[in-house]
């Protein structure tokens, strides 16, 4: 249970490395820990068990946050301007015009950062305040995790998370065994075995003896190696060696063990789990980095403008100004025109600083904040099953979601649900698991399809679902092959049963596959009930039967099969075997040829549907020959040389002439919508790499299930070299095969060059963790990256958490691409932190990934909506916001530059000071915010329908240096028109009463009014999606200008503060003149028309894909009929017999070390199996196609087409059909926020539903020049 204390924050000093308590020149080389002696262990200043993922504490927040904020060049730039404005000799503006906005920006950003870090503190507190039982002063006391120290002895109970890295001392199981689940470390939910030293296992649960235990451990320093631990235990004048099998790592969960005691070796940030997590890095978007560069450009432009105007000022003062010194005297310390020009330079730097106003960054923070809320409010990413909405845990990366090029995904719990289900089977040439109607037509199985009634079996698993009643009838009718089939499933495994309550069985399996098969046998009447080292108890159709276990021929990666030899109650000796089809078919009796051919066809059909297949066979053994074989096995097992080879040879000998029973088909359930999401992301030119701690075969099967691997691929390269030289050779050969030898001819001379080209053929690269360690070395990194980037699919299996981060870092640096990492376990934390964007899935493996992520949700399929809708919209909005912002501020500011040539370069401002103050704060802030918050170039439906629309963000097309120059030039041209059109038009103009309007103040009002109207019309032209808020903001800002402009020009304000309100009566005098309005109209047309003409010509001659889609959207010419598209799934015969990272429990079971009884193991037991050697799966060339189509879930849909499949020798395609999904967004938000959400999603009312069709798996949309829609398979 997680206990969270309520109240004030608890702040701790920051520790970012395990050596934080030591000096950099005194690293820890070895660790010495004495049990139950905090005083002794305290001398070494080891880390406590407190975990800290937050960045700040109460003391460091202000300095660190200010340092981070002033890393923005703009903030430092405005600080320098503020200092300049405090000098009265050069400042034409009041100091508060810069100080107040700068303080506001820093405050808003600090509050946002503090809020983000508060949630990190809260998450840390939830973990740190978990409870553990710690042995203190001879008593077990409940302590928070953060109060646990190195050397403490902790008691753990079943299903409890391990608080720190512990040396296992004793457990409730025989011989000090315990079982752990390592999902938080390597993503696997299958059980691992750990065993205490025999000397410490005798301590048991005796608190007195445990309190007196004073053993001293000397071991390696903290490190991130999950698979290695070396050390020694010294106790009672004896030394005992320690290895990884004695260690319980933080993040694991105790399973199938009532209790155990452990001694803390590593705590807190020094645990292996946290050593693999990496540091929390400050993440900045590419737009932030670009803005830093652009600010430097603008600062350089300001220097050039200021220098130009200062030269003009010196020349003017020298040639003209000296003649006016009678009434325009120089200051007392002004002794030359050059010095006057020097002061003028700084004055113009201050006046022209609004080219990059401080309000830009305030507006950006507001837009990002609201975009984050839109993500959290989106009901399309709400998962009702877990009652979990999406959550934006950071507010600084929203537009980066629209630029992702690489997605790195975990497998278990991310792509899959990690739930195996017994789907179909083939027994004696008959397929079971399919449902047919009264006319013999196959019926698509849905949630509403009736399930088989297992009520005849009192020990059934209520969660098991099967739909073909003919299989149950065959079992009940006594069909011998069917009963033998399920008898094999109930006997041939290493599952451990747990039955705390009579009839409530819980199976603890090494792999989910085994659990699914044993559960299937249980429901069909063959219930595995219990085991001892010598017997297996099975309840067969209600009758308990005990089988004598003679031997277990365990599974390993080379054998790819498992066998058990049992003696039946009637004295028969039988061998039951299950394994890969390619392995068992070679060992069948020749009389099975016909059944083998039929079963092979069924296997092709199962594999074509993405199911994980397994072949079952048996053999009757002769007693005499078996007895002789047992003796030879015993001799081989005790041989001093070549033991493994001898044992394998004997296994090969007895596993011959098998009788084929059939095959199983298990579905490794993908999360809903995974296949469609992967295809949609692929069509958006997003490259997806799978990084998993799981085994090669399991990863390949999942890749086949979600169509990342297909049999029509040109080649699948499996890198499995045992040495660095061999790995390099295999990578080089793969690269040569794909692109030819020319692809690397210049590698020696251009190490930094990464070759990549678009290939018509499709390739896949699969590499395991040990090989990846070699490939990630400096001299081989580029070769790995070159080869991987040439492949359509990349799978890295059996990788450590640190290797995941290294792969992400390699692509991030070398490709200069935006990366996204997504996972659900603690083993994914490191890559989530390393990637530009980290996404956590709240799944079966805890919330460690969620706690450090930037975004989180419940299902992988929501990633499609996060990127293609919210990410693309956010990038589009931010880019349009920035282009408009720079345009309007160049237009606003550079009018001063042109005016300088007509005011003697005196640093006189052309506008009223209050207009300068309010322009970016009041007059133009709300419209541009509305644009950045609600604009949509295309609807969310079209964003999902046309994934190619995502590519402009990846290519940074919408805002880059070129776009900045274009919008700057547009702003410069507008400033020219704003100044010179009124200047020329009003030069000789008179009012109706004969008075002039050519004074400076009237001229300023005309220009400012024209500017407000021009920028308002311009933003109206830039707006693609109009909401009520856009109308209010744009036209309301214009109205606000006319309302405010008269206030400072009234006589009352002039009388009170004449220094601050010098424009007495100017607005009324000027804006009541018809000539002035004609000039304003002429100025507006001159500024707007060039842009309108350019857009019209560009859209007519060379429209972009976005413009084509918008044309279809606006003109409603899209075909309303939803087409059915097919996802090809080629047959692939492969076994899915899963295995753990270590060998099975066979030797452990037969030895009796895991049993509570003291029975001696049988004479024929098998010793340790052979060493692990990865081998490539054989591929069968038989391929085919199965044509069909599937319907959406709604049976009433007009797209519903009956699925017809021919289950003969032909291989088949799997078809995915997707119908519309309805998402209602009404009545889920607070009333004050509902309008914002509806505007963001484009909904006219809160009661209207939005529907869209998911992108189909192998559908590629592109737009013809005519605007028609092409579907390319």
From TrEMBL:
Pfam families: Cation_ATPase, PhoLip_ATPase_C, PhoLip_ATPase_N. Keywords: ATP-binding, Magnesium, Membrane, Metal-binding, Nucleotide-binding, Translocase, Transmembrane, Transmembrane helix, Transport. GO terms for biological process: Golgi organization; phospholipid translocation. Mg(2+) binds at residues 410, 412, 824, 828. It is a multi-pass membrane protein. Its EC number is 7.6.2.1. One of its GO terms (cellular component) is trans-Golgi network. Residues 850-1104 form the P-type ATPase C-terminal domain. Its main location: membrane. The chain crosses the membrane at residues 70-87, 93-111, 290-316, 336-362, 885-907, 913-934, 964-983, 1003-1021, 1028-1047, 1076-1097. Belongs to the cation transport ATPase (P-type) (TC 3.A.3) family. Type IV subfamily. This is Phospholipid-transporting ATPase. It comes from Alosa alosa. The lineage of its organism: Eukaryota, Metazoa, Chordata, Craniata, Vertebrata.
């Amino acid at each position: 249970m997680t206990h969270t204390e309520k109240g004030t924050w608890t702040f701790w000093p920051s520790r970012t490395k395990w050596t934080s308590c030591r000096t950099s020149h005194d690293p820890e080389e070895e660790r010495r820990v004495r049990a139950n002696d905090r005083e002794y262990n305290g001398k070494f200043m080891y880390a406590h068990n407190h975990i800290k993922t937050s960045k700040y504490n109460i003391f460091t927040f202000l300095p660190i946050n200010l340092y981070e904020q002033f890393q923005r060049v703009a903030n430092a730039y405005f600080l320098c301007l503020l200092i300049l404005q405090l000098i009265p000799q050069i400042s034409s503006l009041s100091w508060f015009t810069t100080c107040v906005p700068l303080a506001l920006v820093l405050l808003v950003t600090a509050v946002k950062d503090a809020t983000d870090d508060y949630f990190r503190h809260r998450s840390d507190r939830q973990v740190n305040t978990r409870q553990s039982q710690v042995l203190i002063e001879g008593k077990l006391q409940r302590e928070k995790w953060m109060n646990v120290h190195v050397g403490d002895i902790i008691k753990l109970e079943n299903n409890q998370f391990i608080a720190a890295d512990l040396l296992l001392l004793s457990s409730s199981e025989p011989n000090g065994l315990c079982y752990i689940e390592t999902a938080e470390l390597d993503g696997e939910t299958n059980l691992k075995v750990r065993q205490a030293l025999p000397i410490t296992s005798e301590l048991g649960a005796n608190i007195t003896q445990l309190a007196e235990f004073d053993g001293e451990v000397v071991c390696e320093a903290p490190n991130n190696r999950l698979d290695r631990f070396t050390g020694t235990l010294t106790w009672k004048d004896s030394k005992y060696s320690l290895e990884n099998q004695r260690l319980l790592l933080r993040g694991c969960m105790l399973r199938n063990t009532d209790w155990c005691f452990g001694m803390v070796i590593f705590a807190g940030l020094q645990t292996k789990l946290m050593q693999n997590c990496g540091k929390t890095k400050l993440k900045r978007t590419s737009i932030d980095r670009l803005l830093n560069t652009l600010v430097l450009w603008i600062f350089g432009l300001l220097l050039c403008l200021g220098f130009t105007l200062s030269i003009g000022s010196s020349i003017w003062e020298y040639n003209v100004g000296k003649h006016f010194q009678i009434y325009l005297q120089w200051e007392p310390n002004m002794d030359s025109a050059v010095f006057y020009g020097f002061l003028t330079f700084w004055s113009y730097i201050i006046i022209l600083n609004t080219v990059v106003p401080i309000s830009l960054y305030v507006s950006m923070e507001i837009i990002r904040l609201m975009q984050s809320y839109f993500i959290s409010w989106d009901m399309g990413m709400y998962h009702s099953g877990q009652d979990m909405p999406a959550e934006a845990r950071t507010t600084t990366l929203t537009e980066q979601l629209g630029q992702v090029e690489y997605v790195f995904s975990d497998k278990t719990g991310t792509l899959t649900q990690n739930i195996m289900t017994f789907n179909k089977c083939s027994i004696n040439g008959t397929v079971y698991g399919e449902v047919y109607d009264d006319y013999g037509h196959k019926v698509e199985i849905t949630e509403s399809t009736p399930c088989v009634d297992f009520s005849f079996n009192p020990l059934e698993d209520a969660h098991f679902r099967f739909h073909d009643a003919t299989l149950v009838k065959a079992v009940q009718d006594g069909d011998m092959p069917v009963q033998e089939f399920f008898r094999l499933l109930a006997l041939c495994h290493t599952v451990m049963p747990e039955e705390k309550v009579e009839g409530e069985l819980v199976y603890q399996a090494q792999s989910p596959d085994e659990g699914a098969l044993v559960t299937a046998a249980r429901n069909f009447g063959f219930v595995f009930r219990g085991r001892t080292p010598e017997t297996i108890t099975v309840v067969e159709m209600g009758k308990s039967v005990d089988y004598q276990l003679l031997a277990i021929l365990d599974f390993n990666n080379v054998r790819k099969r498992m066998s058990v030899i049992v003696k039946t109650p009637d004295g028969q000796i039988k061998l039951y075997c299950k394994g890969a089809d390619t392995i068992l078919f070679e060992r069948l009796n020749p009389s099975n040829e016909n059944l083998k051919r039929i079963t092979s066809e069924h296997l092709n059909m199962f594999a074509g549907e993405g199911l994980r297949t397994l072949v079952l066979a048996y053999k009757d053994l002769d007693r005499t020959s078996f007895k002789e074989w047992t003796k030879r096995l015993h001799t081989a097992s005790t041989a001093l040389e070549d033991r493994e080879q001898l044992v394998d040879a004997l296994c090969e000998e007895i596993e011959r002439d098998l009788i084929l029973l059939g095959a199983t088909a298990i579905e490794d359930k993908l999360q809903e919508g995974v296949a469609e999401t992967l295809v949609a992301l692929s069509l958006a030119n997003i490259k997806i790499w799978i990084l998993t701690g799981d085994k090669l075969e399991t990863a390949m099967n999942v890749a086949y299930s979600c169509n990342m691997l297909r049999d029509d691929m040109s080649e699948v390269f499996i890198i499995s070299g045992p040495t660095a030289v061999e790995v390099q050779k295999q990578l080089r050969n793969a690269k040569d095969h794909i692109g030819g030898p020319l692809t690397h001819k210049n590698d020696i001379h251009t190490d930094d060059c990464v070759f990549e080209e678009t290939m018509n053929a499709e390739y896949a690269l699969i590499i395991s963790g040990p090989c990846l360690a070699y490939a990630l070395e400096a001299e081989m990194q580029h070769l790995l990256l070159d080869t991987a980037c040439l492949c359509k699919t990349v799978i890295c299996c059996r990788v450590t958490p640190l290797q995941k981060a290294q792969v992400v870092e390699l692509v991030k640096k070398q490709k200069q691409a935006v990366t996204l990492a997504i996972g659900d376990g603690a083993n994914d934390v490191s890559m989530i932190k390393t990637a530009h964007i980290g996404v956590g899935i709240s799944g079966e493996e805890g919330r460690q990934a969620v706690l450090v992520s930037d975004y989180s949700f419940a299902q992988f399929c929501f990633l499609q909506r996060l990127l293609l809708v919210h990410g693309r919209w956010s990038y589009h909005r931010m880019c349009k916001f920035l282009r408009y912002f720079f345009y309007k501020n160049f237009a606003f500011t550079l009018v001063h530059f042109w005016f300088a040539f007509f005011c003697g370069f005196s640093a006189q401002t052309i506008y009223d000071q209050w207009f300068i103050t309010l322009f970016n704060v009041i007059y133009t802030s709300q419209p541009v915010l509305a644009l950045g918050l609600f604009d949509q170039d295309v609807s969310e439906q079209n964003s999902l329908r046309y994934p190619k629309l995502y590519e402009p963000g990846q290519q940074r097309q919408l805002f880059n240096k070129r776009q900045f120059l274009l919008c700057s030039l547009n702003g410069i041209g507008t400033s020219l028109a704003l100044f010179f059109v009124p200047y020329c038009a009003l030069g000789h103009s008179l009012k109706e009463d004969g008075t002039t309007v050519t004074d400076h103040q009237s001229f300023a009002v005309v220009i400012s009014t024209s500017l407000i109207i021009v920028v308002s019309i311009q933003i109206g032209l830039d707006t693609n999606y109009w909401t009520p808020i856009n109308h209010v903001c744009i036209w309301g800002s214009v109205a606000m200008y006319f309302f405010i402009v008269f206030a400072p020009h009234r006589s009352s304000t002039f009388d009170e503060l004449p220094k601050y309100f010098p424009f007495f009566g100017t607005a009324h005098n000027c804006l009541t003149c018809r000539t002035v309005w004609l000039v304003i109209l002429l100025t507006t047309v001159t500024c707007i028309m060039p842009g309108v003409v350019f857009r019209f010509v560009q859209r007519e001659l060379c429209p972009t894909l976005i413009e084509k889609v918008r044309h279809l959207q606006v003109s409603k010419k899209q075909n309303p009929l939803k087409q059915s598209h097919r996802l090809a799934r080629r047959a692939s015969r492969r076994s899915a017999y899963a295995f753990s990272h270590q060998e099975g429990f066979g030797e452990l079971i037969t030895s009796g070390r895991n049993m509570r009884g003291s029975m001696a193991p049988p004479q024929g037991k098998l010793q340790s199996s052979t060493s692990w050697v990865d081998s490539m799966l054989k591929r069968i060339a038989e391929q085919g196609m199965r044509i069909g189509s599937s319907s959406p879930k709604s049976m009433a849909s007009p797209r519903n087409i009956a699925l017809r499949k021919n289950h003969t020798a032909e291989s088949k395609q799997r078809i995915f059909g997707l119908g519309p999904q309805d998402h209602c967004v009404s009545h889920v938000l607070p009333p004050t926020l509902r309008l914002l959400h509806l505007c963001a999603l484009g909904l006219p009312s809160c009661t209207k539903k939005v529907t869209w069709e998911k992108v189909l798996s192998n559908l590629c949309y592109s737009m013809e020049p005519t605007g028609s829609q092409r579907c390319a398979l």
